[in-house]
Structures are given as C-alpha cells and as structure tokens.
Amino acid sequence: MSAYIIVDTKIHNPDAYEEYKKLAKPIAEKFGGQYLVRGSEIDLREKELWEPTRIVVVEFPDKQSAQAFLDSDEYAPVKKMRQDNADCTLFVVDGG
User: Fold this and answer.
1) Does residue 9 surpass a pLDDT of 90?
2) Each residue of 68-77: pLDDT tens digit?
3) What band does 7 get if pLDDT is binned at 50, 70 and 90?
4) What is the C-alpha separation between 42 and 9, in angstroms, rounded?
5) CA-to-CA distance for 32 and 4, rounded, in angstroms?
6) Is the pLDDT of residue 8 over 90?
7) Is 66 helix (H, G, I), strand (E, B) or coil?
8) 56 secondary structure, DSSP code
9) pLDDT digits (tens, 9 = 90+) for 17-49
10) Is-contact 59 34, C-beta < 8 A?
11) What's the CA gap between 82 and 62, in Å, rounded?
12) Percentage above 70 pLDDT, the chain
C-alpha cells in the first residue's frame, strides 16, 4: 500500500530552501518517492484545526520506504538544512 509524506512548510530562507529542494528530491527518488504536490496554490475551504502555509506531498511505495528515506544517513544533513531554514509539520500516512 502506498504511503505519503505530507509536509506543511513556512520558509524563512528561500535561497537555502531552494538548495534543500535540489538535494532532497534525488534522495527521495532513491527510496521510491515521487513528488505529487510541491508548493502549489492552496484553495483553503475550511480551517478549524489548522491553516496550511506551503504543502508538499511525496508518494512512496509503502510506509517502510517513506520512513527509510526520512531516517537515512544520506538525508540527515539535508533534513538539517530544511530544519534550519523553515518551520515544518511533517507526517507519514498510509494510502487508502
């Protein structure tokens, strides 16, 4: 069953974040990840629990692949780059 990494990101340093995007994509792809949504315009219809800023959705073949990407040694320094230059909410969810 497919799994998805969903991230809401508030970017503080756009130049550094562009570098993060260049580095993260090939690592995600190595683990079977495919970017489905990457910062598209949001048509917000309801916001009782949360008001998103910038949404990214990456599909993986399964939850284990998504977790392996997030926990990989290769992604660790790139993840720190994201964390240093943006505030994020990130979660992994199984497809249905």
Assistant:
1) yes
2) 999 999 999 9
3) very high
4) 13
5) 11
6) yes
7) helix
8) E
9) 999 999 999 999 999 999 999 988 999 999 999
10) yes
11) 23
12) 100
Q: How far apart are CA 76 and CA 32, in angstroms?
A: 17
- Which residue type, as a one-letter code, is found at position 37? V
| Residue 3 amino acid letter | A
The pLDDT of residue 96 is: 74
Contacts 24+ apart (CB under 8 A), 18-26: 19/81, 20/78, 20/81, 20/82, 20/85, 20/86, 23/78, 23/81, 24/75, 24/78, 24/82
Tokens encoding 90: 């990130």
Place of tokens 């392996």: 68
* Nearest-5° Cα angle at 28, 25 to 31: 150
Residue type at 19? E
Structure tokens at 72: 């990989």
Question: How far is residue 23 CA from its own chain's centroid?
Answer: 12
pTM for the structure as a whole: 0.93
Report whether 49 contacts 32 (CB < 8 A).
no
